[in-house]
Design goal:
about 300 residues; alpha/beta; Rossmann fold; 8 helices; about 25% strand; Glycosyl transferase family 2
Length: about 300
């Protein structure tokens, strides 16, 4: 069984795109909504009632359930509230099957093939407690909407955990199960490619609110444009090595970006070949077989 969970908050409008991408290939979709309409930071949030009307009209196969609960705990940090909500959402989705959690601003254009991949590994569902596994996909992060297209994170090795057979979350979506499978499937992340007001709302309410100087990074983000974006290297706010540089995609709408997904997958494959070449050329023979075995397990 394929179960998908979404957290519904201040950026609910992106669900109009992200939900339809997973609808046909899922068996159950659960939307978690704070019943007091508060963010993880305790600030008021607005969800247009028309969104829920759209859900009723769109859900022709009765796959979607609305789960409302209290997700803001004052003594918790935003990150702790995030993790807590994901665990409560997992309980609402019920035991068994593949649990998939996707954020509102993440677009899974190849979801049908991803679910086929999961079903090939249904042996992990027989006794998940003794064989917990975490499935990762490649993350393509859009950084800014600019004239004529988008700036995106280039030369990045970002991967994000999205699926598990044993949904016991330790830190946000991370279960930290020892068994990890890193796939070549791609999740397009709208992330920072939003209006300035939306970005400010995001950084003052999201789970990473306390991780770094978000306001300083916000000012940095505002000053990036088509004329200077190539000047910035290693600039991720928490881990500079994660975001090595920015690239430009000449497309005006998110929908048209999916035609370029295969190019990103090829980049990942080329990167894998470079790592294998490094193993062959730089490591002693005594270590090569062990490293190759581990790398094969992590990237299959």
């Amino acid at each position: 069984m394929i179960k998908v969970g979404f957290l519904v908050s201040y950026d609910f409008k992106y669900l109009y795109k992200s939900i339809p991408l997973v609808y046909d290939a899922s068996d159950l979709i659960v939307l978690a909504v704070d019943k007091d309409r508060l963010t993880w930071s305790g600030n008021p949030l607005f969800i247009d009632p028309l969104f829920f009307e759209w859900i009723k009209e769109f859900d022709t196969l009765n796959k979607i359930t609305i789960y409302e609960d209290t997700f803001y705990i004052a003594e918790n940090s935003p990150a702790e509230n995030d993790t807590r909500e994901r665990n409560l959402l997992a309980k609402a989705m019920g035991d068994g099957g593949w649990h998939i959690q996707i954020d509102s601003d993440e677009y899974f254009n190849d979801f049908k093939n991803f679910t086929s991949f999961l079903k090939e590994k249904n042996h992990f569902l027989i006794n998940p407690k003794t064989k917990p596994v975490e499935i990762h996909v490649q993350w393509i992060t859009l950084f800014k909407k600019v004239q004529g297209g988008f700036l995106y994170i280039k030369d990045s090795f970002d991967a994000i955990e999205v699926a598990t057979n044993y949904p016991k979350y330790k830190y946000m979506r991370a279960t930290r199960h020892s068994k990890k499978i890193i796939t070549k499937f791609v999740l397009l992340h709208q992330s920072w490619a939003r209006d300035e007001d939306e970005i400010y709302t995001k950084i003052t309410n999201w789970s990473h609110r306390d991780d770094s100087d978000n306001i300083a990074f916000y000012q940095f983000w505002k000053n990036i444009n088509l004329n200077n974006y190539t000047e910035f290297k290693n600039f991720h706010e928490n881990d500079p090595t994660k975001w090595k540089s920015l690239g430009f995609i000449s497309e005006n709408e998110i929908d048209s970006l999916k035609i370029d997904i295969s190019n990103f997958q090829l980049f990942k494959l080329k990167s894998k070949k470079k790592i294998i070449q490094f193993i062959r050329e730089k490591l002693p023979d005594s270590l090569q077989d062990k490293i190759k075995f581990v790398f094969k397990k992590l990237t299959k």
